[in-house]
Amino acid sequence: MALRSADEYRASLRDGRRVWYRGRPVTDLLGDPELRVAIDHAALDYEVGHDPVHRDLAVAKDPDSGEEYSAYYQLPRSSDDLLARSRLIETVTGIGGTLVTLVKEIGSDALFGLLRVLDGEARERVATYYEKCRAEDLAIAVAQTDVKGDRSLPPHQQPDPDHYVHVVSQDSEGIVVRGAKNHTSVSANANEIIVLPTRAMGPDDAAFAVSFAVPVDTPGLSLYVSGYGAGEHSDFEHPISSKHKMLETLTVFDDVFVPWERVFLCGQPELAGPVALAFVDYHRFTAVSYKLPLVDAFVGCAALIAEMNGVAKVGHIREKLTHLVIYAETVRALTEMAALRAQVGGHGIAYPDPVTTNLAKYTFATGYHHALELVQDCSGGLLVTGPGGDDWDSPEVRSVLEKFYGAAAPARERLRMMNTIADLTTRDFGGYHAVLAVHAEGSIEAEKKQILREYEPGRAIAYAKRLAGID
Q1: Which CATH superfamily is domain 273-461 in?
Q2: Of 117, 229, 339, 384, which sits most exposed with the smallest number of CB within 10 A?
Q3: How far is CA 128 from CA 64, 123, 272, 282, in A?
Q4: Is 70 exceeded by the pLDDT of residue 1?
């Protein structure tokens, strides 16, 4: 069962999980047309393993047993392994219309981080769980960001302790946890959820220093899916988001029991920070890898709509295209360099260079909204004033649209391109991308802190001393 089919993945979601969407409980995720879009999008992670075009990239083989398994779960040991992982993430995100699938990417990020920093019995538990995920080809979400409550206070001082997931009791069988995590991507359509600490913690936060994994149908676990982007989307007006969607949840643990074999961290606040950061090392590399199709789309869309509008040779348009190329290729170069500068950590597991990874993410995030402006400027006001799908479907109206919206390209092609750009930049899918650019996988401030924390200044300081003649 090491390589499930997309249909086997879909069938695995019918397990009695407690999901709420738009104020109502959902008993059949596959039967809900809006949620089904997200499920079919996530299934791309399974389809690529059976696609001859992508099989070499998407499938790994155990050197001892010869067993094939998803390459997402291949432990990175070198720069080449990380580069291959980046290409796989970029490729599937490209198939997914600029939206990452994430049901294998984020879970394997967490597993790699846990396996790299933990030791002893805790690591043995993670290793056993990793083998299960790999062998069963599971879809895994990660719940890391606690709801946090009053952010000026540490976990143990919160007026409501449930604002951080914490242990409320434990015995010889396992632990019981309570609390909530926010922004949990793909949890509603995953098989398992890995819970990680959200931050470094002090001695008084021991009850909040917890990491574990549970099946999504575990009693006491409830998922409240965000309604952002709700509603069915027509193919004409929303050529990307009508086919691609990701679900985010408020993930609530109401006295959830977790057996010890699934507990990776409990009551060790000194490990909360290292575990959180080890995940971040991999997940921000995943982030910049899946941003590459989006920055390429910005360049391609801007260039194509400029041609269709008949302004491709205008000086200021060429300047804007140049800036978009610089932006896209800088993010790509830094992403590749993060892998080439890979370091090898505990247990021989490689991880992308944290400084370069965060430079890539910072460059993407801080340049995103300017890139958005450039694409919109190359496009024109039809992004928000153009006709809708019902107009185009009306033969009487379509003849008018074909007459007046033709330019250096036929009206149909020009309007399709305008709607694609609008989907990416002005509508709810574009808004989703814009917020992800700033906050997903860590805020801009978090990236700046990590760059300074990880940068080794010794060489630069030694050179400065030499220039100043200081012994």
Answers
A1: Butyryl-CoA Dehydrogenase, subunit A, domain 3 (1.20.140.10)
A2: 384
A3: 17, 9, 21, 20
A4: no
